[in-house]
Every structure is written in C-alpha cells, then in structure tokens.
Records
---
Amino acid sequence: MFVLPWIIGAAVFLVYPLFMSFWYALNNIRLTSEGMRFTFLAQGNFTQILLSDPDFLPELVDYLLSTVISVPVIVVFAMMIALMLNEKIKGKGFFRLIFFLPVIIVSGPILNSLTEQNAGTISVIDTQAVTGAISSFLPEVIATPIAGLFSNMVTILWYSGVPILIFLSALQKIDKSQYEAAYVDGASGWEMFWKITLPSLKPMILLNCVYTIVFVSSNDQNKLIGLIKSAMFSGTSEKGYGYASAMAWLYSLVVLLLVGIFALIFMTRKDRYEKDARKADRKAKAERRKVLKIQRRQARHAKKYNRPTVR
Amino acid sequence: MGTRDRNGMIKLIAIYGLLICIGFIYLYPILYMISASFMTLDDLLDSSIQWIPSSFNLDNYRQAGASMNYGNSLLQSFLIAGLPTLCNLVACSLTGYGLARYKFRGKGIIIGLIILTFVLPRQITMIPTYSMYANLGILNSVWAFIVPAIVAQGLNAPIFIMIFWQFFRNVPQALVEAAKIDGAGHFKSFFSISLPTAAPAFITVALFSFVWYWNEFYLTQLFVHGVLVESSLTTLIIQLQNFNTNYSSYAQTAASGATNLNESIKMAGTLIAVLPLMILYFVLQRHFVESIDRTGITGE
C-alpha cells in the first residue's frame, strides 16, 4: 500500500492536531512546571477575541479586503503574462527566466527588507497621485486597500509566479486544432480568446485563485499570523496556547470561507453552451418518457382487449 | 490574443514592449537590491547617484556576511532545506503513485483530505504540533522538519502529491500491465518502470520543495530555530529577518571598521541570502521549465 505513509501522517499530523487544537481553543492553558494546566472555558476564548481583542478584528477585516482585491489582480495578471509567453516569440526562455524568478525569491523576510527600502513600489508610477485619485471617489474602507495594492504593486505581482506556471502549462495543453478550426470559420483572435482559451482555462483560474488565497494567507507578511504567534507565546494569563488556538480556528474558518466563495463563483457559472446542451438533454429525456408512456398505454390496451399490439 | 501561425508586426512589437516593461517592473526590486548593495554611504546620500555606484564596493558584503555568520548559516540552510526535500520526494512520490495506480475504498476521502490540508492554514494545527514536538523531544532540531516529511505531511506536500499523482496517471497503463505479466510485483513496477519516466516530476518537486523550505521563515523559526529557547540551528532567512540585531551585535564585538547599519549593508545581506537559490535556479532553469511543460503541474 503506497498511500499508507500518508494515512499515518495524516492521522498524526492532521487529525490529531486538529482535535487537540479545538480542545485547546476551548480551554485556558497555563504552562506550569509539571506540564500544561487546562481550565475549561467553553466559548470564552472566542468571545474574548471577537469582543475585546483590539487587534484581531481590524486585522481580519484588513486581510479580507486586501485578499479579495489582490487575488483577482494576481490571477488576471498571471493570465496575461502566460498568454504572452505562450505566443511564438524569440527570447521566450529569457522572459520565462524573468517571470519565474520571483518563485525562487518570494519569502517573508526578503519581502520585508525590500519593502522597508521602498523597493516594493514602482517608482515610475506616482503612487501618491494614484492613492489620492482613488480615495477621492471611493469610500475610505475600500480605498485604503486599493491604495495599499498600488503601493505594494511589485510584491503583489511577485505572487503570480506559480499561477503563471500553472496557466502556461494549461495553455500548452489546449488542442491546437481547435484554434485552426476556429480560424477557418473566420473567428478573430479576440473571439478565439473568449470562446476557446478562456473556457479551457477555467479550472485553472479556480485553482490559481485557491492557490493565491492560500499563499497570501500563509505568507509571513500576513499580520494575523504574527498575531497568533505572539498570542501563543505571550506570558499573560488570559492568552497563551488556548487563546492562540481559538484565533487560529477563527482565522482558518475565514480562509476556508473565502476559498469556498471563490470556488462557488467559478463552479456555478456554467458555460452557455453547456446550459443549452443540458436543456436539450432534458427535453429529449421528457420526449422519451412521453413515448414510453404511450407505448405502455398501448400495451395495456392491447392486453385488455386481447388484440395484437400495434407498434 | 489567440494563437495564429502568423503574427502581425504591430502585435509582436506590442508583446515585446509589454513583456520588457513588465519584466522591468518585475525585476525592479532585484535590480535595486543589486545596485544598492554596492553603494557606500556617500553614494546613498548623494542624490546625483541613482543606479550606478561610484566605486565597486565590496565592503558591504563583507560586513553583511560576517554579521550573518554566512558560512555556517549557509551550510545549515542547505541541511534544513535539503533533508526534508529528500524525504518529501520519497514520500510524495509513493503517495502520488498509490493514488494514481490503484483503486481502493476511501480514495475519494483521502483526496479530499489532501486538498483540505492544502487549503487549511497551517496555524490551526501549529500549536498542538508544537507541543507534540516538544513532548517527542524533536523540537529545535532538523527532525521537526524531517519527521512530517517522511509521512508526506511536509511543507506544501499536497501540491507535490498532486504533481506526482498527475504525472503517474499519464504513464501508459500498458507498460505496467506488461510488467505485471512478466512477473513484476507492485514495488518492482514502481521502481523500474514508473520512476525512470518521472524525472521531470522529480526535478520540479525537488526544486520547489527546496526553495520553499529555504524560504520558510515562520515554521523554521518556530520548530527548528526556536522561539523561547534558541537552538544553534539557523538559516540564512532567519539571519536576515534578525539582521538588525545580528548586525548590531557584530558591530559591537568586531571593531573591524563596522559602521552604523545602512541600507546598502542590508541589501547586501538580502542578496547573499537569496544568492544560492538564484544560482541554483539559473543552473537548473532549463530542466525546470522543460519539466514543468511536461509534468503539467496542474492538479484538478
């Protein structure tokens, strides 16, 4: 059994910690010399986090807004780059080299030290002007994350390394004959993109959205994560392991919710053609049922009047 | 934007222009880092100097390297990233193979769980894992990374399992059948038929795994370096994160011309922290890109 190591691993490193972390979250835990001392609090940790923690909720809202805004940007950007890299151009290898480089470099401390030096912003674009323009016609709640997006443009774009890879490999799998057929039928490049490329990239879009959310969520720059860790090791009596576990649970639920929402958006919106096909299918089925019904009735009648069946 | 045989001139120019512009924006931080890392303090303050330093100054590197304890950290980085990568390769390829080749009950549940482990933030299992490691006595050692990797629970292992799964699914079934008829067992057919064809998948996973372990700061600090009690193990990334304190302690002890910390020194430190990865990438990139083309990294 090849999967056995994984099953063992999942039991030890996934299922057990999950339960324990839930148990922790319901308790106040003090580290004493003879081990951990549990005090059962039920939902106490959660209410405390939600009602009286000064940092958690604002950070959570911040995180949500910035993720919701930056994920589409990253994915669309990645798709653009992938489309361009997929063209027949010279120096493809060189450009690929450039665009995959961030995959290697992206990591919290490095991004930190780069943003500290303001190397994360594009000096060519005047971010101040952009920020001002945005905040003048949008409410502040939405304007701030968008402005943040612009001021960290490069680092956000850097997240798109892996999505570019995924899109690129998906693009190369698209059957070329589809394009040829469309070309013969006189489709323009624009139409081909919307009718062929985009539908076949759809599963990859979902995958990339999920990947990006996960990546942004578990990135070292995410302040919530730092919050959880500092709660874990804070010496105060009301925080500690239990409090941090509760925080982690809340945070995880939010992330899962976010992923779920994105998944719903991309899964429910079916293709128009698919819908049509399904409709036609249903119609055909109804028709068939009708025919069967009539046949059955005929058979019944035939039996009743003892006549040979007419079919 | 479709793929036609013949590209118009204007379109080509547009694509090149866009690629070069975006490429520049993309590389801007790196270029900035390189240029700033050579500057002396005077160059930094001189507003007439934008990109090209007035002299080729290697002193920043010397100081950054010394304060990060470069040789030692480099070795340990390789150790801490390399060993779990090996374990990852073995465990994830086995799991991926098992998923691709055999049908068994509960397979759907396992796949669901794998996806769940990918989506679920690590923080949720972090705290019990931490105390579990502490009880097992593997906290603050490399084992804290190796043990989960052996059972395919390492960093980003779900992605690697998906890659292997996807890849082994594409290995022609007929080959395996033929081997079975010739009397090869399950392991024989795995090692002598599926493994040799999986080289691209192995390269991809190895590189990704190495890079992600190398760049992992949060878990490394928590499990290997230690938070409350620091172990002697450290990586370049951790040294970089703690650069300010490291540098000040270096500047205190060594009277070797250490000045105040300036951004050039910090940039030099950042650069040498990623330099090994960049070298690795430039050496391997041809294989890497090719193997990605062939693996089809895509799950789903």
Note: Chain A touches chain B through 104 residues (CB under 8 Å).
---
Amino acid sequence: MKKHRTSYGAPRRAPYAFLLPAGVLFALFFALPIGYAIYLSLRKIEVKGLGLGSGARSEVWAGFSNYTAALSDPVLLDGALRVLIYGLIVVPVMLGLALVFALMLDSDRVRGRAFTRLAIFLPYAIPGVIAALLWGFLYLPSVSPLHYLLDSFGLPQPDLLSGGALYIALANIAVWGGTGFNMIVIYTALRAIPAEVYEAARLDGCSQWQIAWRIKIPMVAPSLVLTFFFSVIATLQVYNEPTTLRPLTNSLSTNWSPLMKVYQDAFVGGDIHSASATAVIIAAVTFALSFGFLRVANARSRREENR
Amino acid sequence: MTAPTTTLRARRRGGWLPTAALFLGAAYCLLPVVWVVMAATKSGSELFSTFTFWPGTGFAENLSDLSAYRDGVYWTWMANSALYAGLGALLSAAVSAVSGYALAQYRFRGRETIFNILLAGVLMPPVILAVPQYLLMAEVSLTDSHLSVLLPVILSPYGIYLARIYAAAAVPPDVVEAGRMDGAGEWRIFRTVALPMMAPGLVTIFLFQFVAIWNNFLLPYIMLSDDEKFPLTLGLFTLLNQGANTPALYTLVIIGALLAVLPLIALFLFIQRFWSLDLLSGAVKS
C-alpha cells in the first residue's frame, strides 16, 4: 500500500470504506423501504365507475387521509389497547424476574450457578413461533398437565385461551422467552463492577441486601434502561405469538395486535396504502417512546457524572 | 474466584434462598422443553390420553411419519433454516465487525450521526420494513426466493452496536497505532490485529444473529409462498394451521418442534466454551 501521509494518524477515507457495506445495506433494506412506505401511505387507489376494466383504478395523492382514517379506526385502537395491557404485564414481570435472577446469580452464596444460568437463558434459543406452539399445547385442555392435575382432583378447568386469561397466557410466553436474555445483559453488567467497590462496602458494614439495593442496582441502571427499551419495542411489535396461537383458539382475531392488522390489510385485504399508514404510525410511536426514554436516561447519566 | 475456600464455604451456607429461586426459575424455563421431549414420544392416541409428562411408545413412528410427510419437506425446511441462519449470521457478523471497528477506532466527521442512524434501525418495527421490502423485492422479481429472506437480515444494527463496544474494549488504540508505524495498511491492521482481538465478541454477535434469523417468522411469512423455501418456523406454523382441522398432524407438529429446537440447544452448549460473558470486564483488566 502506498504511503500517503507523513504522520501516523488515521487516514481519512478508511472509516468510510469500512462502513460502506453497512451503508449500502442500510440504504437498500432500511432507508429505501421506509421512504417507500411513507410514500405509499400518502397515496390511495381511486376507483372510477364500477372499478372494472383498465384505467378504472388509479393511484392518486391522498394527503393524510389514510392517517386520519387509521387513527379513527376502532379496530386499530382496540388492538393498541390490547397491546398496552399485554405490555403492562410483560415488561415489569420480565424485567423484575431478570433483575432478581441476575442478582442471585451474582451473589456468592449460590449453588448450581452454571446450570441455572444456562437453563433460564435457554428459552431465548427457542423461536417465538415454536415457544407459542409449545405453550399453546400446554394451555390446551386435552393436553395440558395443569388440566390433567385439576381433572384428577375433580376441580374445574380454567380456559386459558379466552377472555382475560388470554393476556396472561400470551404474556407468559413473552416472559418465558425474554427473561433469560435480559438476565444475561444485567448479569454481565454486574460482573463488570470492580471487586474493590464491594470490599469498601463490606468494610463499611453493608449487608448483602444493602449492597444489592445501594450499589448493584444503581450501577446496572444503564443495562436496565437498555433492557427496558428493548422490551418495550419488542412488546409494541408483538406478532408471532398471537398469530401462532390463533389455530388453537377462537378468541384471537386477525387484528389482535396493530402489526397483525397491518399484515391483514396489506396481504389479505390488499390495501397497501392504509397498511403503510398504520405501519408508519406504529413506527412513529416506537420512535417517540424510545427517543423520549433515551433522553431521560441520558439526562440522568449526565447528572450522575456531574455530581 | 480468588476468595479462600473456607470463607467461600461459610458464605455458601446461607445461600439456600437464591439457590432455590434460581432452581425454580430453571424449572419454569425447562418445563415446555421437558414436555416436548415427552410428547414427541407419544403416538396420536397417547397424546390426549396419558399423563403429559410420561413418555409414550410412538417416537420412532412419529419420526418416520414426519420424514414421510410430503416427501420429507420437513428436512428441506431444516436445511433452509440452516442456510438462512448460518450464512446470514456469518455475513452479519462480518458487516458488524468492520462497521463496529470503524466506529470505535476512528475519529471522523459524521461518526455519531452514522452510528445513530444505524441504531435507529433497531427501533424499526419489522412490518414497516417488511411491507415495502416485499413490494421492492417484487419490483426486482426477487420475492419467493432464498435471497429475499437472506439479504434483509444481513445488516444488524444491534450487531454493529455490540461490535462497537467490543472493538472499543478489546482493541487498544496503541496496538493499532503500532501497526501503522510498522507501515501496515488499515485493512491489514483490521484483519490481522483487530479481528483476532474482537473474535470472542464476534462469536456473540454471530450467535445472536443466528438465533434471530433461525427464529425469524414475519419476513419469510411475507416473502415466501413456495413451501420448498420455507424455514422451520414457517413450515411448523403452516403444519399447526392444518392441524387445527386434522388433529393427527399434532404429533408431527410436536416432534417437528422438538427437532427444530435441538440444533439451537446444541449450538448453545457448544458455543458456551468460547463465549465469555465476562468479556467486558476481562478487557478492562488487560
């Protein structure tokens, strides 16, 4: 390679060359589709006459009409409400369990650490569709061990796949699948806390409980922010689990979650324009939530630094 | 653990509560896995009549039924999943490695902007991408092809984010600078100096991406119509859908689910040895 500099500083062009593959992929598979989705969301099909023959259906500018239609669509709003309820169960339970398990793995009085860590992380390796499928069978009265036990004691068997229990049934799949991943993220952060911090705390007479509450949890706050942020995003995008459970129950509509409605509108209803508008709304909500949240998190960490 | 064994034992005596809680958590997480292992051994009639955690007698029969189903389409799904996840994760780890390294080791105009734009990709719901991705793939006649499922998953914003952290923690700038003083080019420094140092982190990224792609459902669901190209998740989903009308297919779904999970469990156990959870703290020590 030709020497094109006198100092040993980094060359100017190298980082851009290194980032080229990511840039090209981003442009083709992220930026272009997003731009196209926004474009589609601002257009609609106009049908002339009976809509028969060529030229009867034409694509025209729609302004924000797809958006106003989507935002006043009770089907979408119901779906959003369902996902909100679902998220209010999933996120606190999953992150609470992840934090508790991570703290317990990190406490030095525990046995079977390697085995339990692996076992709790294991569901992460199982595809959401297959997890939903397995739990779906476990909820099914004719197969479920719970129902088998209740039946042998002559007790009534709850229907886990309808009404309010359906939220618990769906939330359980997400909690089961996600706790281990979040536990590992928090546990990794706990392992990174230098031992001197603990020694100082012990010399000051802190109990294990105080160490956990006053030192460990504040020090892993950035990981908690990260896991919270990923969990909320994953919750907004819930799709696979309710879709997989549908064949097993009549109480899951094709519009159960907003993303299911997008799929339904685009690929079953054939209305890509209103589907795109709904998709853009979901993306905007996701962005607003996560950026707002990141701002709060950043402001907090800056305050900590200035103290 | 450098603590003397006596104090370690003394401390362990009071550890029954966290230990019990962890084992309870482990039992909860293993429950469906144990169930599917047991259920896979049951014949169709045993599935609905015997205790769910008791093994049955139909394992070999289920296996041959699954293999026979539509001339072994299940094994095609398995091969497809391996192709999508293996190749996709490999390319993804490579792209993440160069990008993360560049973002960590160079100071250049637009660095944070590029990073933030890439990271914003994490926030993008798959459907907002999947609908237009489908339409754009249709424009270039790539829908219902292996490429339509493979190409969109190569770029992983999360992988780049991790690679940047690993590159910053594991590759000391002094070493890069020393490479420059020896007259090595930037690409050569990356390949021979930085890449080996980042290797443990890249294994993690590969694993995350492999799992993510293996578990992917929505993208293939939208892109593919020919079931010869389906990955396992989509294949099993269609099988379950048909099973709602023909319960005889349930035994196939169950043994299919078990076999779909085994490779990932094997991969996990295998990769544990290379996968250092203490990577970040380890890098700080050196």
Note: The first helix of chain A runs from residue 14 to 41.
